[in-house]
Amino acid sequence: MLEAIGQFGRSLKGPSPYEMSGSFLQKRKEKVMDGFKEHKESWELTGCSIMTDAWTDRKGRGVMNLVVHSAHGVLFLDSVECSGDRKDDKYIFELVDRYIEEIGEQHVVQVVTDNASVNTTAASLLTAKRPSIFWNGCAAHCLDLMLEDIGKLGPVEETIANARQVTVFLYAHTRVLDLMRKFLNRDLVRSGVTRFATAYLNLKSLLDNKKRVSKTI
């Protein structure tokens, strides 16, 4: 599209603000809604899963995203700011239950959340009201928590800390970093703050490149 605009030249007249906020916006909305129909047809045919993702932004505001997953793909459902609300089991249950009602209980197979204790209690409330719907914890989050606990064991914690120090040293000095990239011809996998699996990926990265890293240092 941008190439076509460039070929047309400066004489191209763009849409007016009225058109952008009126007819053009309405057409785009209709196209999006048409896309929803295919998702909803899939929900009726094979069922769907409601998935939640709760997080806190840089301003400390609590946000919960809700998406629907089905054989047709993933559809964003809603994003709820819950900063001023008490995010207890009842709140989460009522929020999820509202969207189950909107989609249709007969179309929802399961609800997937992280493994926080408050979600476990909310699952009990949902099971009592809608016994046909499963409530499952996110497998990836469960594995991440397992790796976090393993990382608290003495020898493992010390090894991860040493690996982090080596990585920080390499990336904190420009000349050393240039040498490392020259010898490795790639970057190391670095530990993340919130994803504990990255600490183990960092260890594997250092182990796989042990000789080259030693040569750099």
TrEMBL record:
Cited Pfam families: DUF659 (PF04937)
The record lists the membrane-crossing segments as none
The record places domain DUF659 at 15-166
Q: Superkingdom of the source?
A: Eukaryota
Q: Residues of the signal sequence?
A: none
The entry's protein name is DUF659 domain-containing protein
Organism of origin: Oryza sativa subsp. japonica (Rice)
Q: Which gene encodes it?
A: OSJNBa0075J06.6
